[in-house]
């Protein structure tokens, strides 16, 4: 019997993954900024939630999810924990959660990314897959925001400009 050793190289560092995620968060913040105040809270299509509710879901998942991973706490997330009254409230909380994400992400060792974790007591996957879920969910909801902005006759931010604010 012959065995073959396979050498693998790391595709992306944890710092690069965080930078990628924060690029998406920067773009989602720009989508929030693009909404007129009233439509941010009231406009929807086809029974979907207004964009403020989608943004609040993202706020309830990212920072709290990382805090749970670091503390090995599997509490359910709470979308109703934050209820902004203005766009400024939402943007302030968004920025606070960005700092929370940076804080807790830095506490995850390279080895922990491969550990299985039961996120919010619902999703049992390796830590890196939970983080990719956070990013995928954000992209999904930001896409809904793009549709809303287009339906309102507004040009959304270019999706490829994740790191720049023009």
UniProtKB/TrEMBL annotation:
<comment type="similarity">
    <text>Belongs to the DinB family.</text>
</comment>
<feature type="binding site">
    <location>
        <position position="141"/>
    </location>
    <ligand>
        <name>a divalent metal cation</name>
    </ligand>
</feature>
<dbReference type="Pfam" id="PF05163">
    <property type="entry name" value="DinB"/>
</dbReference>
<protein>
    <submittedName>
        <fullName>Uncharacterized damage-inducible protein DinB (Forms a four-helix bundle)</fullName>
    </submittedName>
</protein>
<dbReference type="GO" id="GO:0046872">
    <property type="term" value="F:metal ion binding"/>
</dbReference>
<dbReference type="InterPro" id="IPR007837">
    <property type="entry name" value="DinB"/>
</dbReference>
<dbReference type="InterPro" id="IPR034660">
    <property type="entry name" value="DinB/YfiT-like"/>
</dbReference>
<keyword id="KW-0479">Metal-binding</keyword>
């Amino acid at each position: 019997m012959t065995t073959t050793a396979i050498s693998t190289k790391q595709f992306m560092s944890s710092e690069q993954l965080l930078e990628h995620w924060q690029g998406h968060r920067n773009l989602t913040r720009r989508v929030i900024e693009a909404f007129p105040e009233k439509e941010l809270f009231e406009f929807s299509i086809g029974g979907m939630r207004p964009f403020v509710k989608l943004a609040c879901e993202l706020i309830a998942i990212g920072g709290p999810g990382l805090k749970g991973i670091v503390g090995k706490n599997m509490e359910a997330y709470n979308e109703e924990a934050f209820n902004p009254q203005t766009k400024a409230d939402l943007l302030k909380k968004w920025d606070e959660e960005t700092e929370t994400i940076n804080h807790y992400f830095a506490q995850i060792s390279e080895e922990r990314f491969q550990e299985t974790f039961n996120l919010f007591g619902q999703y049992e996957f390796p830590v890196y897959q939970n983080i990719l879920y956070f990013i995928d969910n954000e992209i999904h909801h930001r896409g809904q925001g793009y549709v809303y902005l287009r339906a309102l006759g507004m040009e959304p931010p270019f999706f490829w400009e994740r790191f720049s604010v023009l």
